[in-house]
Design goal:
The chain has about 200 residues and is an alpha+beta fold. Helix content is about 35%, strand content about 20%. The chain has six helices and seven strands, in the order E-E-H-E-E-E-H-H-H-E-E-H-H. Strand 3 and strand 4 form a beta hairpin. It binds iron/sulfur cluster and FE2/S2 (inorganic) cluster. The site of iron/sulfur cluster has 14 residues, from helix 4 and helix 6. Iron/sulfur cluster binds next to helix 4 and helix 6.
Length: about 200
């Protein structure tokens, strides 16, 4: 695979073709905030927090850096006023789900996001998909998945699989940017125990 050269925050960066903008920035020591990205998982592009400004062939667009491939000659900006404003709004929307999440609070502080701006959502899940994808891609167990759509979208453990696999694993728990996953698991476990009672 050949090398390509691009500019990130006025810094020349050389990476292999096929590298994402996020990886190229990391290679250059430039940090971009992420919530749904995990180095071991396939790129997902769910949270949009990693948004950057990409200038290529005379066009400037906002792209999710974790899924967008770096191109030769590209000019990337990772932290303009416009980007900061978008991240602030995204964080405010996520904080409506999980205002007490330490990870979200830390980002909120950095971007000046107000956790009271939007009405509180009933679900703590921010739909990053980390737990679902980790279980499917790394553990190959598919013990949990998403149910429902739109605002009603939730994660749900599949009791038949979770009752056999999750107790000894729980590797997805620390990946969750909110604490919802633990609560959902405890709930699924209690329900399983209930249904097994004589
Ligand atoms: S439960 Fe946590 S890890 Fe799973 S999708 Fe929701 S926020 Fe992400
Ligand atoms: S980290 Fe890129 S969309 Fe979530």
């Amino acid at each position: 695979m050949s090398d390509i050269s691009l500019q990130i925050n006025e810094q020349e960066v050389v990476v292999k073709e096929g590298t994402t903008i996020l990886e190229a920035a990391k290679h250059a020591g430039i940090s971009i905030p992420t919530l749904c990205h995990h180095d071991k998982l396939k790129p997902y592009g769910g949270c949009r927090l990693c948004i950057v400004e990409a200038q290529s062939r005379g066009k400037t667009t906002m792209v999710a850096s974790c899924v967008y491939p770096a191109e030769s000659g590209m000019v990337i900006k990772t932290s303009t006023q416009k980007i900061k404003k978008i991240r602030k709004t995204l964080l405010e929307l996520l904080l409506a789900h999980s205002p007490d999440s330490p990870q979200l609070q830390e980002l909120a502080k950095e971007y000046g996001a107000d956790k009271e701006r939007y009405d509180k959502e009933s679900s703590f899940c921010i739909h990053c998909g980390l737990c679902v994808r980790y279980c499917a891609e790394i553990k190959k167990k598919n013990a949990l998945g998403f149910v429902n759509r739109g605002t009603k979208k939730e994660i749900s453990f599949i009791p038949e699989i979770a009752s056999k696999e999750c107790e000894a694993c729980k590797e997805c728990f620390p990946l969750c940017p909110t604490s919802y996953l633990q609560a959902a698991y405890v709930l699924a476990k209690s329900l399983t125990q209930l249904t097994q009672m004589p």
